[in-house]
Structures are given as C-alpha cells and as structure tokens.
Amino acid sequence: MSLEQKIEETKAYNCVECGICTGSCPVSRVNPDFSPRLMVEKLLLGPQDEILSDRELWSCLTCKTCSVRCPAQVDYNEFMRAARVAAREAGFEGVDTHAGVLRSIMELHAKGFRPAGNNWLDSSLQTCTRGNDFYFVGCLPYFDVVFRNIELKSTPIARSAVKLMNLVSIIPVVSRNERCCGHDFYWSGNYDGFEKLARYNLKLISDSGASRVIFTCPEGYHTFSKVYPSVLGELKFEVVHLADVLLEKVKKGELKLGPICDRGEEKPRGAGGRGRATAGGGERRVSGDEGQADPEIKREAGLSGDGQETVSEESRVKVTFQDPCRMGRMMGQTEGIRELLGLIPGIELVEMPRNRANAVCCGSSQWVTCTSCNKQIQLDRLAEARETGASILVTACPKCRIHLTCANYDKDRDLDIEIRDIVSLVLDAVR
After folding, report:
1. pLDDT at residue 206 is higher than 90
2. Domain segments of the chain: what residues?
3. Which homologous superfamily is 3-89 in?
4. What angle do CA 297, 299, 302 make, to 5 degrees?
5. pLDDT per residue over 390-404, tens digit each?
C-alpha cells in the first residue's frame, strides 16, 4: 500500500489542528520540536522527502496516546508506521540504540540465523517439544547480554514463567528455534523483515502442535493477537498473556498465594528496595470493585475477609502498576493484572494519577532513538510512581522494566523504588 493510500486510510486529512495530540504526547511535553499534528502537516503540505528525512519521525514512541484522544479519529500511530516504511525505502532510518546490537539480532533472525538454544532453562523446569501450550519466550535471553551494564537480567522472568506453569500442571513447549516476533521491525518500518519472522514463527508453532501460545511480553502478545492476523490471516491457535492464565488458576484455587517474600532475585544497582514507603502526592488507593476480586473468589484463593486480615504489618507492601502501551491502550486489557495483584495477601495497590488508558509510556520503543528527552519521560514516570508511596513498581512488560531500571540506575537521583515484573512477583507469593 502506497503512502498516499495510508494517508487516506489513517484519516490524516481529518486533522483539525486542535492540538490535543500535541498536549497528550509524552514526547511533545519534553521536546517542543515534536508534534504528531506537525508531522502530518509536513507530509501533507511539504515535499515528501522533507518528513521522510526528518529525524523527528523516529521520536514517536507509537504509544497510541494521541490516536485514542484525537476527536477527528486520525490514526497517528499507523500514519507514523507507514511513514517509517516509506522512509526506510527511501534510504532513511532512525538512530539505533545500544550500538545496533538488538537490531542486528533481529536481522540475523530474519536471515535464517539459528538461535543458540535454551541455555537459560535449568533441570528443575519441565518443558517439551510438542504439546498444547507453547511458551513464546521472546528476546529475554538476548537482553541478559545487552543490559549487563545496568546489572539487569531478564531470563529470570522466563524461568519464573515456566515454574509457574509447571505449578499449575502446564508443561509448555519451549523451542530452541524460536525467533524474534518482529514487533520492532514492524513499528520501525522494516516490513519485509517483519513478515519473514512472522511466517517463520507461525510455522514453528504449527509444527509443535500447540493450540495456545502464552506470552510474558505484551509486545509479542499484541503482535500475535493483532498484527499477525492482519498480515497473514486468522491464527489457528489461542493467544494469551501468562497473567490471565495465572489469574484464572488463582480464582479456581489451583494456585495458592501468600504474602510476597524475597527469594533472592537479583536486583540491579539503583533498583530500590522494600524499605518503608511514605505516602506522597497523587496517591490513589484502589477500593471497592476496582481492581479487586469478589469475596467468593478470595475464599477460593485462600484469602480471608478483604485478603489482608491475616497479614502482619511487616508483610504489607504498597505497589503501583505500569500499564504497558500494547496491553492497555492497544488491547484494552487493564484490569486482569490489577485483579491478580489484589489476590496477593498484603499487597496494597496504589494508582498513579495517569493509569490504564491514560498511562504514560515507559519512554522508549523499538530500540530506536534514546535521547535526554526519552530519559526525562522515564524519570518523570518514576517520580510519579514514587509519589504514590509505593515501594514497588510492578510491570508486565520486560522492556518497561529495562527502560525504567536504566533510568533509575543513576544513583544521584532520589528515586528509591524497586521495579518488579508481575511474573516473578507472583512466583514470590506462591505458597
């Protein structure tokens, strides 16, 4: 599809220059040179090469905040993606982060490079090569290597995921031949590379006999749920996030949870701790039906009363939650993880002022462009999390965890908050 056709499809001509997109965009709030509206205007009114060569084209986080708020229903997200495809075809690209290592890995995968295998698995975990459930690990093993400089490991998320699946009698397929899902290629304009990866992964899963694919990464989850079907047709298997699987098992009483405990998970320097948190501005405690399970479900889960009665004061902990863009705004799934958190005894969920569909992006995307602007977005979000009084910031996205941990790594800043993935947090609560 040509760029002109995409302009029509995304309703770019509908823009009434109201400025809502600019006021909503996390990048525009920090970088006054960037505006979703101005990017559209440049393409509609000026020479096409002017925007295709504009470095600001790669500043967009594709978080979709502007699109969901646009009164004219302009799909800025898709407009920016299409413009990047055209830019790449014209020979223009964004600046890779992390010396281009992660993009090189994706390119090798697309060219048929065979991954190194599943060295992150240990002998205590049960997996198989054919079965009903396929665990799509994603890029977690590669993150371990790239982010050693901030002392952050991502494979513990994968191990925790398999352990939790085993605890609820799921023995997943974990393939040594899995490749990148193609999310970053898709949103950074490398459509051909994305399609190669998508076709490869669909065949891999089909050959495994799986009827369900389980994700711990919202980007992979969204890519398989929404993008793959739009490109390659209806999938022949179910796509789920592990948090939804765990929530169902807890509700049925098949997974019992208690107060979270420290099981020695490796924490990067600057990741904060579990010291006493003091309430600050913007605190919003979840109460009533919002983000909470009903009393009957709590009894099934092994809780009593409001789920907190038998928990000592020392075991209570305030947490706040970072909604991933792909899971929240793009898929409308905001309540499941909140409900799961509400079923962990001693957990008190306190919301940041900007949450759910209004949540702020973690500040970086597709491993393209990481400037002082991106870092400021991350630091502002961490400050917002800390002001809730929470001692733990829970994420459901490995990349959110990486980006926010990277920003929090600066010990000169007073942002003492621990950043945890929902999967490892739930494992710590299993009794």
Report:
1. yes
2. 3-89, 98-244, 256-429
3. Alpha-helical ferredoxin (1.10.1060.10)
4. 110
5. 999 999 999 999 999
